[in-house]
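PROTEIN DESIGN WORKSHEET
SECTION A - STRUCTURE
LENGTH: 243
TOKENS:
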């Protein structure tokens, strides 16, 4: 029986050693579909998911992940990739979607206003935020927005580094959706930052504008060696603040 959300969260542990038992590729794919439903900044969905099942590719990626057990014993791997370079394409996809859902000729004033606001967002605001030239425009926008911010609240994350962070935050949300979905069906995962990201990109023939968010080992935990000790978290009272 599939676990509840709370049960899946408690069951999920970063698994370093997996059993030799195979896992169902289609079930993992469904979990990746769940990942694609994660919240994402401006609905741009600047991510891609590479589901690795080929033995030769698994071996190459394992080496790129320093042959750590979480990669070496994984039955499958998932590579979460950010694609900030696709912002124009994804913005156009949102515009096309809005054109479709607001295509009725008899829309009332409320929906027409909503359509105009959304269209302006994707055709004006998004290009303003994402357009840059070697970081120069981003820095100019950053300074201008800081000045405006002295007088009213304003969006301040306009530099190349800021937009990279935005893309990686969205990708991480998707990765968590995936890992919890895997946990819910009794499969285990381990998110790995320890990798030679250039070699990972080369193995997968990824374009220059892509970035590796994380590599996730997938399988079924070895009960004796898979989990490296009991879970530790700092006291909840140290991280929870009510205002």
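SECTION B - SEQUENCE
RESIDUE ASSIGNMENT:
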């Amino acid at each position: 029986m599939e676990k509840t959300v709370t049960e899946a969260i408690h069951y999920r542990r970063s698994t370093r050693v997996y059993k030799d038992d195979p896992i169902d590729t289609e079930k993992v794919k469904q979990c990746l579909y769940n990942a694609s439903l994660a919240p994402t900044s401006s609905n741009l969905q600047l991510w891609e998911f590479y589901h690795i099942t080929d033995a030769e590719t698994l071996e190459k990626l394992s080496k790129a992940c320093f042959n750590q057990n979480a990669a070496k014993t994984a039955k499958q791997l998932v590579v979460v990739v950010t694609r900030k370079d696709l912002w124009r394409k994804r913005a156009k996809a949102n515009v096309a979607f809005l054109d479709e859902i607001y295509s009725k000729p008899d829309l009332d004033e409320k929906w027409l206003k909503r359509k105009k606001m959304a269209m302006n967002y994707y055709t004006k605001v998004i290009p303003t935020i994402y357009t840059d030239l070697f970081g120069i425009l981003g820095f100019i926008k950053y300074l201008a927005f800081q000045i405006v911010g002295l007088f009213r609240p304003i969006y301040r994350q306009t530099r190349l580094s800021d937009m990279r962070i935005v893309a990686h935050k969205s990708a991480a949300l998707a990765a968590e959706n995936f890992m919890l979905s895997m946990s819910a069906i009794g499969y285990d995962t381990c998110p790995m930052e320890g990798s030679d990201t250039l070699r990972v990109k080369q193995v997968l023939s990824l374009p220059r504008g892509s970035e590796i968010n994380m590599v996730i080992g997938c399988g079924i935990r070895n009960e004796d060696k898979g989990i490296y000790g009991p879970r530790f978290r700092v006291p909840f009272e140290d991280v929870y603040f009510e205002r």
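SECTION C - NOTES
The first strand starts at residue 47 and ends at 52.
The beta strands are 47-52, 76-82, 188-192, 211-219.
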